[in-house]
């Protein structure tokens, strides 16, 4: 699970690079669940624009991923994201 501060535009490139490095280092082909967090704040990137900013379509080896809009401080979107991860771990 990767939690991204959706207001922190300056760091999307750094996040993208870290994600690719981590996946390249790992032999695991687990689902990556990305939380586009802080969706309650002004000047946020939307989940679909975050997909583009993180170049999720081009992850190494066609790695499976999902993105969820979240507001961690209110719990919004968290249930869905965690249910998805649990279902994946039971497969
Ligand atoms: N409004 C809002 N605040 C949040 C949300 N999720 C976390 N926070 C708050 O964000 C703060 C932490 O911000 P982060 O960006 O995680 O951490 P940071 O201190 O900025 O550290 P770095 O970004 O790693 O440098 C805490 O005060 C949290 O309560 C959210 O969905 N909405
Ligand atoms: Mg921050």
UniProtKB/TrEMBL annotation:
<protein>
    <submittedName>
        <fullName>ADP-ribosylation factor-like</fullName>
    </submittedName>
</protein>
<keyword id="KW-0342">GTP-binding</keyword>
<dbReference type="GO" id="GO:0005525">
    <property type="term" value="F:GTP binding"/>
</dbReference>
<dbReference type="GO" id="GO:0003924">
    <property type="term" value="F:GTPase activity"/>
</dbReference>
<dbReference type="Pfam" id="PF00025">
    <property type="entry name" value="Arf"/>
</dbReference>
<dbReference type="InterPro" id="IPR006689">
    <property type="entry name" value="Small_GTPase_ARF/SAR"/>
</dbReference>
<keyword id="KW-0547">Nucleotide-binding</keyword>
<dbReference type="InterPro" id="IPR027417">
    <property type="entry name" value="P-loop_NTPase"/>
</dbReference>
<dbReference type="InterPro" id="IPR024156">
    <property type="entry name" value="Small_GTPase_ARF"/>
</dbReference>
<feature type="binding site">
    <location>
        <begin position="37"/>
        <end position="40"/>
    </location>
    <ligand>
        <name>GTP</name>
    </ligand>
</feature>
């Amino acid at each position: 699970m990767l939690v991204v501060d959706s207001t922190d535009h300056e760091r999307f490139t750094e996040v993208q690079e870290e994600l690719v490095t981590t996946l390249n280092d790992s032999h695991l082909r687990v689902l990556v669940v990305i939380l586009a967090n802080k969706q309650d704040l002004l000047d946020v990137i939307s989940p679909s624009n975050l997909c583009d900013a993180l170049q999720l379509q081009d992850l190494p080896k066609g790695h499976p991923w999902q993105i969820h809009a979240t507001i961690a401080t209110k719990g919004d979107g968290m249930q869905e994201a965690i249910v998805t991860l649990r279902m994946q771990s039971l497969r």
